[in-house]
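Q: What does the assembled structure look like for these inputs?
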Amino acid sequence: MTSIADRIAGPPLAGEAEAPPREAAVAPAESAPAILFPAGGERELRLDLFRGLALWLIFIDHLPPNLLTWFTIRNYGFSDATEIFIFISGYTAAFVYGRAMLESGFVVATARILRRVWQIYVAHVFLFTIFLAEISYVATSFENPLYSEEMGIMDFLKQPDVTIVQALLLRFRPVNMDVLPLYIVLMFFLPLVLWLMKWRADVALALSVALYAVTWQYDLYLTAYPNGFWAFNPFAWQLLFVFGAWCALGGAKRMSRILSSRITLWISFAYLFAAFCVTLTWYWPQLNHLMPRRLEQWMYPINKTDLDVLRFAHFLALAAVTVHFLSRDWPGLKSPWLRPLILCGQHSLEIFCLGVFLAFAGHFLLAEISGGAGMHFVISISGILIMCAAAWLFSWYKRVADKNATRTKGIGGNADMAGGGA
Amino acid sequence: MNSNSGAILGLTMLAGCLTAPPAYAEDAPANCEVRPYLLASESPLPKVADAVKNGRPLDILVVGSRSSTIGTSNALDASAYPGRLQAVLREKLPSVVVNVSLELQIKKTAEEAAGDFVKLLEGKKPVLVVWQTGTVDAMRSIDPDDFRVAVDEGVAALQNAGVDVILMNPQYSPRTETMISAAPYLDNMRVVAQEHDVPLFDRFAIMSYWNDTGDFDLFSASRGLELAKRVHDCLGRALSQFVVNAAHIGPAQQN
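A:
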């Protein structure tokens, strides 16, 4: 039986295991670090694996529904790939920059985090440019009278000045481009989170839960342009990110007893099964009469914008079951079959952006070549293959670059470097 | 970001051997079948049933945004779905006087449209109101909670005025899928329909099914009216069958 603690800690070095975070904060130079790293600089491949999986699923979910859509987890429960992505991002970011904060102090770590934020921002702007090109094309070439109403969405093209400035301010965010702005905001506040965590990890988590509760109670949100709100409310989604960070900085280890208990496992299974049954009624509305009305009224709508508690719980249950059955030394992690997924997970920012771009491109192709379900399938598969090839190329380049820069490296390490042993 | 209802085809393919062979809606032309569950509703239309039973005129008011018409005028366009609804219902129910009228609420959100309901129903006294909404709200990304409240209040106002209500959700529009996120609005309309026990005509799922099966290529950039007219014809037929099913109008009263 394995526990989530393995996920970060690996076999801990003697004396490290019980070191509470604050000790490290008091005397970072001498005491053993509170943050436990995998022994021997080994990467935590499970994180890479599941982040890679999340990236594939996000890509498939961004394409119009097709056969492959049925393999994405959102069809079998409440949560979807976004939860996995944000949790693992929080986990790896805390892991990498948490160590940086211990080694080089708050200011340096903050500077490195902000550099990362800048990279993500630039990536977002790059994607926005491509989006603009795509929809300008659609706007000028598409005049189906059936959809004259929907075409009104292009009205913002009449004011490109305002639109572009609003996009730079992250207030104008087209559909499918919501994840990166959320990620930018979360990363921006990471120094504060890490600083709090270094002081008292549990207090940081408690504050995060409190913010989540306040968000629900008082309906906090960020407005968007031209109207509306952020599709992923950062006030609510920070909970997953901070929870990921908390797990990375020793929380997982402390939860290991709860996680390895049979009761947790059975509760998780029961919840996942119940969620599965509920989702079945979405796709077979014939089954809807089996759902108790009272339950429906209490449960619906399941709010994605504010990270519904049902979604969060679903993610927790999934994570608990996954960690239980997939140990960190599962030999399959080294198998060539899972290699593409792991590679994608190791270059998450690049592959995420590529995925969004490919989804746009796929949309475009589907619109131009009406090939039906077969074409759809081909586009989805090719997209995934391109993502894998790109990930492989990035790894190759990184290997070569690292080789050339042997022993001169002092910097490096970003949130993609899960496992910290790059 | 997602459209759950969009992939019914995929499901059917995966579960092909588990489900019974689909029965098709009566008298729909072969090129736009609708899965029967999309035309069934547990929520009743008592006033429609009553009118048909007692041979009273069946006045139907369609309140909708631009997608409820092919042209732009408020007059009933014979080729758009409200006009087709009238024609098909007259065929189906020869013993009843069927009149469909249209109230276009162009570029109005659910909240704005619902504000006019009381005044609207003072002038007309329909038996049934088909309220098509959600598109404008999705395009303007109105807060889904606000949208739900608006639809909720709108339906309540209609019910208080003593009419039957059918809610109709947005069109399936694959070209604008990357720009308009319909899912939260679809979900919230379903919730309101359940709470008020009113039938929901799932236009989105129906059109998405047609697109999946290849009945219609809704990606098409065609500038002509032909596609729009055929889609509206099929929608009108599906809607008329939906009305007949929800009101439990027996074969004796049908043609």
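Chain B touches chain A through 64 residues (CB under 8 Å).
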